[in-house]
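Morning run. Coffee first, then this:
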Amino acid sequence: MSLEILGGNLLRLRHARGLSQEKLAAAAGISRIAYMNIERRQSEPRPDTVRALAKALKVRVPELLVEAPTLKRVRFRSLKRLKRREQVLAEVGQKLRDFVELEAQLQAADQRDFDRLRAIAAEARPQGIIAVAAAMRAHFGLSDHEPVHDICGLLEHQGIKVLSVNIATDAFLGLSVSEEDGGPAVVVNTWDRLPVEHWIFSAAHELAHLLLHLQAYQVDEAFEDNEQERDADVFASHFLMPDKIFRREWDGTVGLPLFDRVLKVKRVFRVSWRTVLYRLTEELSGTNQRKRLWIQFASAYQQRNHKVLLKMVEPEGVGADAYRALFDLHKAGPEPAGMDRHDFQSDRLWRLVRQATMGGEITLARGAEILGIKLNDMRDLAGSWAS
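And here it is:
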């Protein structure tokens, strides 16, 4: 084993977990001095020590022994309080490397020219971001009256990889990777305390960045560009809820209380209540009118549920820009009439793993590593395929 790679991975993962050398050593059942010598590349550990360290860090052994891929053409923005940036990049790099290797092994790489989609977006751009969203929907084969029922399948059908990471924070919702680093890929934080509606919106949001902001794909750039974020939010809103069908669904609920209308419409489009309210505020001219709409919804929630609805705003009230400044205001909170993780499920990687394991190209253990599941679960999965 390479002591340089092992020591670097241990240091990175330990920092990502917020552990001291002493705490990690204790969790792995070794002395602090023994651990320090391993991390400093001065001592080669026994195999059982490597396994104990992997267990203590909650990673697979290969993640300690293999050099983490280096991503460069990534658009990765997050709130400043995110402490795991390096670890997120390493995890995404490993997932993409596994994906690309499996495609090559099965000769199943998608050779679609993503620049064609960018050309369509550039042609529509002079008419505004809403026009870009409409052009993409048309290219994807969606009619003006059709909701997006499966965002993962839709993107995968266009040759875009859809990956999930589970990062316990609402300071990071998603990122995207350009073609040079194994993409195009959309990566969504599917932490279970983030509503599924956020996962779906984040996927559409990152699609906008892939189409519109290729110049921003530099891994060293960590701070948000307000204009780019607004473009991506507007694109995602209108891609998921085109005007014609949104107006039809909203008008169809006339007579119901605002709270019920919003929940009914959000279920149709699989979006957050925030997205629906934002679209309604687009038609209101005054700041006070927009603010009253948000407050009215929050008050109705509190009356019905006897608790405050967490909002992505300052404590003094719901501001008019609560959606437009989404990148700066995310907080994990309840999603009324929420969805579950089956509403955001990528398929292509699972199909490739099935093809490779059933064809004998990879082992069940390797399949489990690629999918990020336990070996026993992989055996059960393979048994279900065979039957």
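The two ends are 40 Å apart (CA to CA). Good start to the day.
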